[in-house]
Specification:
It is a single chain. By secondary structure, this protein is α/β, with parallel strands linked by helices. The protein is built from 22 helices and 11 strands. It has 3 domains: 249 residues, Rossmann fold (3-Layer(aba) Sandwich); 172 residues, Rossmann fold (3-Layer(aba) Sandwich); 26 residues, no CATH class. The chain has a 6-stranded mixed beta sheet, sandwiched between helices. It is globular, with a radius of gyration of 25 Å.
């Protein structure tokens, strides 16, 4: 498949030059407190509803002229055409010649949509064929999940993966813990450090444990090292490769992979696969989501998909002016490339979302942490910010000191729920009050304080996202919102957001170094690596 990239790189546009001049004349000195004093409608102007998510952007360092220039930039960069190319199944991942169609994983099956959507289903026969395969696999996965849920003999499910095969499912399972099957405990193993898997195995019984080996190729080094260790433990505990035995390996190990031959050699007969057009960090909607489906059940998994699809449709159809992923991405560019803010802190005021910052680290920094454009040319500007954070009140007593009074401005993204979770609902107002207070304190500060130790400069930006509740549909929409935001940022910067060659170099070097730890061979190594290897060798 050939793909003629419709984008113009952001620094090659007229809008980019106009934004540079605007920043120098007005953006650099922008004051939020003055902006609110001058515009009684500022909250309404810079807030909006999107599917399952309300966003208040009013505490950001923007005004109407700034946003107008940013929207002009999006148009000149060809964001709309690039977005449409993704939804048409074009190979926008140009370095790997692959389409990018994680959105198809949550698209309803034909016959379950309205007339307008049904018409879209018929546009591209190859997409219709892929959608049929998606739903066939989805039905198989959900049926398998329900069998596991109904199996009282299985109490512990251990997902062994890394990267997208771990972060997404782990984040969602923890977020939806209120809906988790009471008889099933979900565990996620990713670190090749034996302490992680070893400490878990000491708590498990082989007869009541199911291992899910999540590796598309069934060759991922870290995942397969842990998988082999789990297999050895299982066999040492009385398990058998014989399917007729009391404790057969095939009953206690499933594979989420496309490498059926390698899985069979491992002793696995139950497998689910997915497609090349599903990137690892976008894969929780696929068979990689099996632990999610086991935890919450088929109806809730479908609701997760439905929430994401609603956000997909918002991103695909909403005008740029009211397109929430686009507006957030434009803010990211404004802060990264004009204000020179190098990081963004995530502050979810929800214990359920405690793994969201880690998930977003991969989603954003692996996608957009690139120094060349899609044609391999060096970029003269920064791309992905450093994404980091913790659940809200924990962060208040850790790094919020720096955010309030440190020399660097760090935009903060607050996430709050209108409704409490299942447990101790009386504490919810205190949680929400803390989120609101921190956002207000960052903006207002206390600049008039004479004591420098107690002075707060204020004028520190934040975004505030509100979900009605933490349920599957809202969570699905929230994740899709971030996916499309990352897509749009990458489109503006002119990069390929869907490869990750930076992951590969270190992995290749590790394969060379591992046997050297046993032999002590340092030939060809730099002095530092040689010295460390001697220090760490067995």
């Amino acid at each position: 498949m050939n793909f003629d990239d419709p984008r113009t790189r952001c620094d090659h546009t007229t809008a980019w030059q106009r934004l540079r001049a605007h920043y120098e004349s007005a953006g650099r000195s922008f004051d939020l407190r003055a902006a609110f004093a001058q515009d009684a409608q500022r909250f309404e102007r810079f807030s909006q509803d999107a599917p399952h998510v309300f966003a208040d952007l009013s505490k950001n360092l923007i005004d109407a002229p700034t946003e107008a220039l940013l929207l002009q930039l999006a148009r000149e960069c060809g964001v709309v055409a690039y977005r449409d190319a993704m939804f048409e199944g074009r190979p926008i991942n140009n370095t790997e010649q692959r389409a990018v169609m994680h959105w198809l994983l949550r698209k309803p099956a034909p016959g379950h949509t309205g007339q307008a959507q049904a018409a879209i289903d018929t546009v591209a026969p190859e997409i219709a064929s892929a959608l049929h395969d998606v739903h066939a696999t989805l039905e198989d996965m959900l049926a398998l999940a329900e069998r596991v849920r109904a199996d009282d003999g299985i109490t512990d499910i251990v997902n062994i993966g890394i990267g997208g095969s771990d972060l997404g499912p782990a984040m969602v399972v923890k977020a939806l813990d209120d809906l988790r099957h009471p008889g099933k405990r979900l565990h996620f193993i990713s670190n090749v450090d034996g302490m992680e898997l070893g400490s878990l195995l000491r708590q498990l019984r082989p007869e009541s444990t199911l291992f899910l080996i999540a590796s598309k190729t069934f060759t991922t080094a870290e995942t397969m090292s842990n998988a082999q260790a789990a297999r050895a433990w299982f066999l040492d505990q009385g398990g058998s490769e014989d399917a007729r035995a009391r404790l057969p390996l095939a009953r206690h190990f499933y594979a989420l992979t496309t490498n059926l031959e390698a899985a069979a050699q491992f002793g696995i007969t139950t497998t689910l696969g997915f497609w090349d057009w599903v990137g690892g960090r976008y894969s929780l909607w696929s068979a990689i989501g099996l632990p999610i489906a086991i935890a919450v059940g088929a109806p809730h998994f479908r609701a997760l998909l439905a929430g994401a699809h609603a956000m997909d449709e918002h991103f695909r159809t909403a005008p740029l002016e009211s397109n929430l992923p686009v507006r957030l991405a434009l803010l990211d560019l404004w802060y990264r490339n004009f204000h020179d803010f190098s990081s963004r802190s995530m502050a979810p005021y929800s214990h359920g979302l405690r793994r969201l910052p880690a998930y977003l680290q991969q989603l954003e920094m692996e996608s957009n942490g690139k120094g060349v454009d899609a044609h391999g040319q060096p970029l003269p500007y920064a791309t992905s910010a450093v994404v980091w954070g913790e659940p809200g009140t924990n962060g208040q007593h850790a790094f919020f000191q720096m955010i309030h009074q440190g020399p660097d401005t760090v935009p903060v993204e607050f996430i709050a729920l209108r409704e409490p979770g299942r447990d101790l609902p009386d504490q919810h107002p205190r949680l929400v009050a803390n989120a609101l207070a921190q956002a207000r304190a960052l903006m207002m500060g206390r600049p008039e304080e004479a004591d420098g130790h107690r002075r707060f400069s204020g004028n520190r930006p934040s975004t505030f996202l509100v979900l009605e509740r933490l349920d599957p549909a809202s969570l699905g929409a929230l994740i899709a919102l971030y996916e499309h935001r990352v897509f749009t940022s990458g489109a503006l910067w002119g990069i390929n957001s869907f490869d990750q060659w930076g992951v590969e170099l270190g992995k290749g070097i590790a394969k060379d170094l591992e046997p050297r730890l046993a032999t002590g061979d340092v030939q060809g190594l730099d002095p530092s690596s040689a010295g460390l290897l001697r220090r760490l060798a067995a």
